[in-house]
Prior knowledge:
Elements: H1 2-30, H2 32-38, E1 46-47, E2 49-51, E3 58-62, H3 63-70, E4 74-77, E5 83-100, E6 106-118, H4 124-133, E7 139-148, E8 154-157, E9 160-165
Parallel strand pairs: 1-8, 3-9
Antiparallel strand pairs: 2-4, 4-5, 5-6, 5-7, 7-8, 7-9
Amino acid sequence: MKRIVFLSILLVACIFYNVLVAQTSKATKAKPQQAEKEKPKPNNKRVPVYLGNSDLSSGIIPKQIFDSLIVQGITARDSSGNIGRVSGFDFFYKERNLYEDSVGNYYIGVDFISETFAGNQFDHVAITALHERSKKDDTTIFENITVIMPDSSRHLGKPMMFVIGK
């Protein structure tokens, strides 16, 4: 009896979903020109961003260099050499670890850590944790980097990804 009730509710939910999707697709197809007029033009200019005061924006990076550059924070420079001020960024850290399951088999797993920082610097706790925890084959990603250029225009910075090497 419970199975029949559950399947009936699931069927009704699927039908409702299909009707809702059909109605929204008809509404968006009916007014394509109006939707195009309402869209604001996005500022697609992405500013190059670098780790520390270096020219490194992605790739494999030795642990010693990574540890020295994260203390410096993030810098932004456009192609004309104008230096922008980084007002915030999202940081993602993928830490590879060796785990053991309940039967005793080993496997490599990945722990994901994410943090949002205001400004262009890591806080002291994050720097200490990265110095202690970072190791070969860990991956760091910097995204949603907000850059304010000298002319007060706001831009997104190009995302950066580093894999920590030897």
